[in-house]
């Protein structure tokens, strides 16, 4: 039986792709928190962030359920969902992007690697480009990601009524802290 | 033939590994979660009667309620604004589904207290339930001096009790509807021919105009126990206006009383004759306790 070149080629491709798929990392309980208060503390945290990234291509994605953000005050959480994020209409916020300098990260060697991420944040029905710096920390087989960036709420069509504009900031500072393990 | 199969198989694996949506790799087997439906009403009261909403755990709701005089009492009384009936109340959320509250009204110098419990919470997702069921039990005590001192006046004569079952549903973001039955028992009534027990059926609804404003209305049909020639069915209609921690309810009502016993058994004004009152409910939420 002779094996022809195209078959070998596809076999090779499929093998390499299998190798690649070993290099994906994921989490289902990442932390994403935000602060958007100016007169008072308006802080929410979501501890069930799903995120996956591909160590080879640098492709990285995050998804959170808007209703999963927890606040110290029940009323604040209700208003966040009902008045600002309209979470029944827009239940999920998703970021899809790329770590553009993934080649600088050595996943075989422990260390802290600064990275730049570029992509689209889809929130409150609005898709907008976003670029931020952060870092990847490699510790053995686990990787953690940390980033902090600020978004303008009006970019995402989130209106602050004049009555509460002293209390709510025009921007939200978002912090990302995720611990990944290898996706098998 | 075999080769082609291999090629197709390999290609299948290859294209599979190129899938652009990384999240679908971990999200696909995610079970849907049961979710409670919240904010059917902005406030824990429709206007006069209890709504299907409760305040959150650890929250204190300070409530200042006013009902002015009759609008048709003329310009000399500034269309009723000269006169004010009020209730000052404090509600506290012991749990997300258990609220207690106390209040005092100047009408009849009346104290009231209640326990409100939600055994069934409207939800979506697996194991969901289409409606919320709320139970309210309350008690009132008027503290006016007795006018008839010749009789022996027991403290229990001052008391009245009410029990209420509310079944409500938030049909959509803008429309909520609830039905209720109220039973009021008064230990002492003014006249010998009056009944101690009064039964009423209530309906309450909200239609949102915007994120922070809504039209609300509540009506109680007195089914049994009151002389309908004297006592009328209480009906109120008004606006909910929410501003952060406050909810203002501006309303027109034929009821003066601001607790269940009082507005159900003591409403004498008649909408048909235009003898109604302007009033407002002001609710301010303070967060005291920890949520978790």
Report on this model:
The complex is a heterodimer of chains A (184) and B (292). Chain A is α+β, with helices and mostly antiparallel strands. Chain A has one domain (25-182): Lipocalin (Beta Barrel). Helices cover 15% and strands 51% of the residues of chain A. Chain A has helices at residues 5-21, 74-84, and strands at residues 24-37, 43-54, 59-65, 92-99, 111-123, 126-139, 142-152, 168-182. The radius of gyration of chain A is 20 Å and the shape is elongated. The two termini of chain A are 34 Å apart. Chain B has a single domain (42-287), classed as Beta Barrel (Porin), CATH 2.40.160. Chain B is mainly beta. Chain B contains 3 helices and 14 strands. The A-B interface holds A 4, 6-7, 10-11, 13-14, 17-18, 20-21, 24, 26, 28, 50, 52-54, 59-61, 63, 67, 70-75, 78-79, 81-83, 88-89, 94, 161, 163-164, 167, 183 and B 3, 6-7, 10-11, 13-14, 16-18, 20-23, 25-27, 35, 38-39, 55-59, 93, 96, 173, 211-212, 242-245, 285, 287, 291.
Structure at a glance:
Chain A is α+β, with helices and mostly antiparallel strands and 184 residues long. Helix content of chain A is 15%, strand content 51%.
CATH class of chain B, anyone? Mainly Beta
Number of strands of chain A: 8
The CATH architecture of chain B comes to Beta Barrel
Count of structural domains of chain B:
1
Helix amount of chain A, in percent? 10-25%
The first-level CATH class name of chain A: Mainly Beta
Distinctive features:
heterodimer, A: 184 residues, alpha+beta, Lipocalin, eight-stranded antiparallel barrel, 2 helices, 8 strands, 51% strand, elongated, B: 292 residues, mainly beta, Porin, twelve-stranded antiparallel beta barrel, two-stranded antiparallel sheet, 3 helices, 14 strands, 9% helix
